Amino acid sequence: MKKITTFEQKKVLILGLARSGEAAARLLHSLGALVTVNDGKAFDENPAAKALLKEGIQVICGNHPLELLDEGFAYMVKNPGIRYDNPMVKRALAKKIPVLTEVELAYLVSEAPIIGITGTNGKTTTTTLIAEILNADGRSAKLAGNIGFPASEVAATATEKDTLVMELSSFQLMGTIDFKPKIALITNIFSSHLDYHGSQEAYEAAKWRIQENLTADEYLVLNFNQEKCRALAAHTAAQVVAFATEQQVDGAYSLEGKLYFRDEFIMETAALALPGEHNLENALAAIAVAKLSGVENQAIIKVLTSFSGVKHRLQYLGEISGRKVYNDSKATNILATKRALSGFENSKLWLLAGGLDRGNDFDELLPVVSGLKGMAVFGETAPKLQKLADQLHIPTVPSENVATALKEVFEKSTAGDTILLSPASASWDQYKTFEERGDMFIKAFEELKGELK
């Protein structure tokens, strides 16, 4: 870790704890900052605040007093989930106090080069692919950022021999000033998080911050399947490297069933372990970053032919009596399920779907579910999905939850079929999170596989 003096004897306010706030507080404390943590959770119910207090860090819990900002703070480091219209954040900005997120701290102290990945969809899968490819090539890649490992915590222990592979949300990127990765990647840009950013333009501007400080010495990898990204390519100082499907570009591309990087054949498209057009894009993005990092093709092929997916994101669980089973519990909306379905042959596919009813119908799924072998429906949206299936004369299995759906569909399916949990709905009608929903499905898979041994 670089022993920077930027924060030495400077008063810094950490707004909001969670894992990133806790990590930022410890890092700044080690750098000699005068740290105050302000968290909304009451102290008696706040183990993180108690631990920080024992380490000599001041904590103020249970409320957010605006007058706290009159105490001469030089910086605020906020939890990424806290919006900029929050009264504390607005007050800090009005007082000209720089408002950072902890990925900026990670950059400032990191001895390791950073590969930064952002985008609307595919960030986690692509970030994980890149890290696994680098490690397969004998590098030391460390996952960090929005993927679940606080960036400042990982950066504090990384050395120049490591590489930080960092997933970055728009929320995190808004709190950067000097942040500059060696390679930046934007997987795609769609409409998202408008409640936080206020407009699509503001959301896109936040994503675009990933390349804010890049020069001709760094690389920006862009999705040339999207006209928006192609247009953005003209507005960066970085070297632009493209990826695209079914067209030749200066970068990674697929053509006639083969994957290439700058005309160098890498592997057959059919050998990819993950199905779907979106995963083809993820693979090409990972290839581009890997080749720019000097990775051997053997490592790329090894990972891309065996990668079973990130947990709950079109994750291949395995096979039971000839049926392949996938867990895509993260598919909490229609677009995600449409993308998942693109990778399978409908005539042999059983779709398990349902969850929280947000008031929308499922007509957008009509073209992509046509010809399904069957569906299991559950949760609040079950009646709407049943109606969809009836329109297309798809056999259905009304189920209580994801676990019973798997067992019931297994009985009706045959060897050679695929069973896919891709709910097209949020999980909150029956589960606290999509992870809890996916974990129940995984447990049901393991139990069923054990019973049939």
From TrEMBL:
Annotated localization: Cytoplasm
Protein purpose: Cell wall formation. Catalyzes the addition of glutamate to the nucleotide precursor UDP-N-acetylmuramoyl-L-alanine (UMA).
Name of this protein: UDP-N-acetylmuramoylalanine--D-glutamate ligase
Annotated Mur ligase C-terminal domain residues: 312-424
Keyword Protease assigned: no
Mur ligase central domain span: 117-290
Amino acids binding ATP: 119-125
Protein origin, superkingdom: Bacteria
One MF term in the entry's GO annotations: UDP-N-acetylmuramoylalanine-D-glutamate ligase activity
Keyword Iron-sulfur among record annotations: no
Keywords in alphabetical order: ATP-binding, Cell cycle, Cell division, Cell shape, Cell wall biogenesis/degradation, Cytoplasm, Ligase, Nucleotide-binding, Peptidoglycan synthesis
Chain's gene name: murD
Assigned EC number: 6.3.2.9
Database matches in SUPFAM superfamilies: MurCD N-terminal domain, MurD-like peptide ligases, catalytic domain, MurD-like peptide ligases, peptide-binding domain
Associated pathway: Cell wall biogenesis; peptidoglycan biosynthesis
Catalyzed reactions per annotation: UDP-N-acetyl-alpha-D-muramoyl-L-alanine + D-glutamate + ATP = UDP-N-acetyl-alpha-D-muramoyl-L-alanyl-D-glutamate + ADP + phosphate + H(+)
Main subcellular localisation: cytoplasm
A Pfam cross-reference name: Mur_ligase_M
Family label: Belongs to the MurCDEF family.
